[in-house]
UniProtKB/TrEMBL annotation:
This is maleylacetate reductase. It comes from Variovorax boronicumulans. InterPro entries: ADH_Fe/GldA, ADH_Fe_C, Alcohol_dehydrogenase_Fe, MAR. GO terms for molecular function: alcohol dehydrogenase (NAD+) activity; maleylacetate reductase activity; metal ion binding. The keyword NAD applies.
Length: 369
């Protein structure tokens, strides 16, 4: 008689997943089309009385509408969010929040705006409500990034973790397809590195695989039909899962390279992730075969590294650093920075191999070719 398949954790779990400590982070998620309308109740639930609405200069209309929704609980709009959170933008925002007596901030926009909210919270402890309009996933992490004198520094601090996240797929309806694709691949990168993280665990791995699957399918749907709200919901769901993974477990070489490229060469964040990810996965493939198998399965591809490269190409995203503003003569500096203060990585960092990785990413070579 056939026995049902036994559960064999030692066969399916990699070493770090058989022996782990997991501390779940507190965050409240409201996920629904139209969930922005719940903002006044969510501000009240935090015990806040005056919420400052944060945005980029281009999203003022949405921020003003959000402020109007809050009525007397609004402390107005601060529209100085910028990519990579330059330190002076953080200073200005902190000063403004204090001047208007805000006891809460609502960050409505992409990862840049959420990042500004985090920079305020880092100093003041102000509770943040995040309303993401891209798929970057920052809203689920206690990670902040601030750029000062050409170097992006990141850190973890629970004070910056948004207390409440309103996921409203309607808000990303008009996010351009190109931006949707690259921010979705940014989120896929969180999950991919989570699958080989030193401090990974089985629950995060499940979320990572599901997140990659949801994003790969959702992004293909948006590419076919930008207003497909089921596809947009799938991407936001994937962003939630992948962001949660990044929030709970460590990042490795891929994120380090992207932070270096973004902070020191001001490259666009999500596009940089999109170009670098396939090369970072190729570099780590031999050291993390189980993770690669799970990434490939979630992408519906035979191989993780080429699967990511092909997904980007299929969806019309950039695949070469030279096409997104990276000067070739800056590559040695990237290598130097990446080696000087590295994140843990499953494969030891080898200067020659990393040089080749960067050269391939710069030229847009398909991994393995
Ligand atoms: N700490 C963390 O855990 C994480 C942090 N990040 C950080 O987030 C930033 C990247 O986030 P990302 O979201 O990609 O970048 P942005 O927030 O810069 O947004 C990217 C682009 O999308 C546009 N956009 C955003 N929302 C909409 C919308 N609803 N409709 C139309 N256009 C829209 C923005 O326009 P506009 O400029 O007009 O607003 C911008 O041009 C980086 O600084 C990165 O470091 C990313 C992931 C995780
Ligand atoms: O730069 C930050 O805010 C910190 C982390 C990230 O950006 C994660 C990422 O590289 O997407």
């Amino acid at each position: 008689m056939n026995k049902p398949d036994a559960i064999r954790p030692h066969a399916i779990l990699r070493a770090s997943e058989r022996d782990f400590i997991f501390t779940a982070q507190p965050s409240r998620v409201v996920f629904a089309p139209g969930s922005l309308q719940r903002l006044p109740q969510e501000v009240e639930a935090l015990g806040a009385r005056r919420a400052l609405v944060l945005c980029t200069p281009q999203q003022v209309a949405l921020a003003e509408a959000t402020s109007a929704l809050l009525g007397s609980a609004s402390a107005g709009v601060f529209s100085g969010a910028e990519m990579h959170v330059p330190i002076d933008s953080a200073w200005r925002a902190r000063r403004h929040a204090s001047q208007v007596g805000a006891d809460c901030a609502v960050a409505i926009g992409g990862g840049s705006t959420v990042g500004l909210g985090k920079a305020i919270a880092l100093e003041s402890g102000l509770p943040i409500i995040a309303v993401p309009t891209t798929y970057a996933g920052s809203e689920m992490t206690p990670i902040y990034g601030i750029t000062e004198v050409g170097v992006k520094k990141t850190g973890r601090d629970l004070r910056v973790l948004p207390r409440t996240v309103l996921y409203d797929p309607e808000l990303s309806r008009h996010l351009p397809v190109g931006m949707s694709v690259v921010s979705g691949i940014n989120a896929i990168a969180h999950a991919a590195e989570g699958l080989y993280a030193q401090d990974g665990n089985p629950v995060m791995s499940l979320m990572a695989e599901e997140g990659i699957r949801a994003l790969a399918q959702g992004l293909r749907g948006i590419h076919r039909a930008p207003a497909d709200m089921a596809a947009r919901s799938a991407c936001l769901y994937g962003a939630w899962l992948c962001g949660s993974v990044l929030g709970h477990v460590g990042m490795s070489l891929h994120h380090k390279l992207c932070h270096t490229l973004g902070g020191s060469f001001n490259l666009p964040h999500a596009e940089t992730h999109t170009v670098v990810l396939s090369h970072a996965l190729a570099y780590n493939a031999s050291a993390a075969p189980q993770a690669m198998a799970r990434i490939a399965a979630a992408l519906g591809a035979p191989d993780a590294a080429t699967g990511v490269f092909d997904l980007a190409r299929e969806l019309g995203a950039p695949t070469a650093l030279r096409d997104i503003g990276m000067p070739q003569d800056g590559l040695p500096r990237v290598l130097e920075l990446a080696l000087s203060n590295p994140y843990w990585n499953p494969r030891p960092l080898e200067a020659e191999a990393l040089k080749e990785l960067l050269a391939n990413a710069w030229a847009g070579v398909r991994p393995g070719h």
